[in-house]
Specification:
mainly alpha; two-stranded antiparallel sheet; 397 residues; 17 helices; 7% strand; 9 strands; single chain; three-stranded antiparallel beta sheet; elongated
């Protein structure tokens, strides 16, 4: 079969499922069991990546016996040199492995994410931050417009972190570093003349749609509530365990009344999940008999089955929108301007991108005129190059 044939992965899944069924049905192979829940399936598969959580030496041996039998039947072979084992709990530090693998007690990488005991924030996030930094540095020498920089930030740089952000907790220091890298690139390493919240707005509201990292992460985490409502996957047992331990409540009760439970009591990932659900206006609707988001607005409220990352992100932007500073800054001089028309007009004319960027700065009132520099405390001549008038925004334009 040709490489890249769309039938290949489907056939592979059918064949690999035979191995999974054999392992799940083997009575010698026992998985993890949390208090108050049934025993988890010992095997988890994603394409050709297989992870097993086992609780006895006999189970480990039985798994490799199943692999040997599968190899004879299918012709596929397990590459033990690329397989690793992680000791957890009371087995930490063991030196007598039941099978010949590389066994460690610190961390292993599963589907691109390190798991293990202890704090793995630096291990999981530093490579992503460095990847974002490398991308932005490679584009820094280009003469990009603000719109071009926004495209690089969104499509090429920050896109490298969303997968991990949807799976593990993003610490405050990571959020801070990513935001700094993005906006430092946007402003060319110079002073930020317009607030980050304004730059994250749509061009229709005076921004350039640079991704708001915190809102994006909340939008990604919100999808776990959708998965909770639509499936009965084994990960829900972990969520149920923590909700019972800390709140003596079911996950449905917690998601139905998120402000009645403190996120601080939960482990980091579930803390972030509950915080995201709060900000998404999550609750339970009796009329819909469903979990809903956007409950703070009767017009935006919708069932979680309709929830997507994009919809959640747009909802968070709309709920936290704040007019750019120029709206209040120019009101005493020019009155109540029709700002939506002003923002749209910036892209009406076929002019150079540098002119568009200049117009954007003028409308925001952040052009560095002599008058503005003096207000910053710099000692520069106030007079304009054309004569005696003060070099102000009003005079120049």
């Amino acid at each position: 079969m040709r490489l890249g044939c769309p039938l290949s992965p489907l056939l592979y899944v059918l064949v690999s499922e035979v191995l999974a069924v054999n392992i799940r049905c083997n009575r010698r192979i026992s998985g993890l069991c949390l208090p108050g829940s049934s025993v988890f399936s010992p095997i988890s598969q994603y394409a050709d990546d297989t992870s097993l959580i086992l609780s006895s030496d006999d189970a480990i041996k039985a798994v490799f016996e199943s692999y040997a039998l599968f190899e004879k039947a299918s012709g596929a072979r397990l590459n033990q040199s690329k397989s690793k084992g992680l000791w957890l709990g009371g087995w930490t530090g063991r030196s007598d492995p039941p099978v010949d693998l590389e066994w460690i007690s610190t961390k292993i990488k599963v589907l691109g994410v390190f798991i293990g005991p202890g704090n793995l924030e630096e291990d999981n996030w530093r490579p992503r931050i460095d990847a974002v930094d490398r991308v932005l540095k490679s584009w820094r020498s280009r003469a990009l417009s603000f719109r071009g920089k926004a495209l690089v930030i969104n499509a090429l740089a920050l896109s490298r972190v969303w997968y991990v952000a949807s799976l593990i907790h993003m610490p405050a220091w990571v959020l801070k570093e990513l935001s700094f890298l993005a906006f430092s690139f946007f402003w060319g390493g110079k002073i930020e003349l317009v607030s980050r919240s304004s730059v994250s707005l749509s061009p229709l509201f005076g921004g350039f749609s640079v991704v708001h990292v915190k809102f994006k992460v909340w939008s990604l985490l919100g999808q776990w509530v959708k998965r909770f409502a639509s499936s009965s996957a084994c990960w829900i047992s972990f969520l149920t365990f923590w909700c019972r331990v800390h709140f003596n409540a079911s996950p449905l009760e917690v998601f139905s009344n998120p402000f009645s439970f403190s996120p601080r009591a939960l482990p980091p990932f579930y803390h972030s999940l509950l915080l995201a659900w709060r900000n998404l206006g999550g609750s339970f609707s009796s009329s819909r008999n469903s979990l809903v988001y956007g409950s703070s607005s009767c017009h935006a409220s919708s069932a979680v089955s309709n929830m997507s990352t994009k919809i959640c992100y747009l909802y968070l932007l709309s709920e936290n929108i704040s007019p750019p500073h120029c709206v209040t800054k120019f009101a005493p001089v020019y009155g109540d301007l029709h700002w939506s028309t002003t923002w749209r007009s910036l892209s009406f004319f076929d002019v150079d991108r540098q002119v568009i960027d200049l117009n954007w700065k003028i409308v925001h009132g952040v052009l560095l005129t002599a008058q503005r520099l003096v207000r910053f405390g710099l000692s520069v001549p106030l007079s304009c190059f054309c004569g005696s008038p003060v070099e102000s925004l009003e005079h120049l334009f």
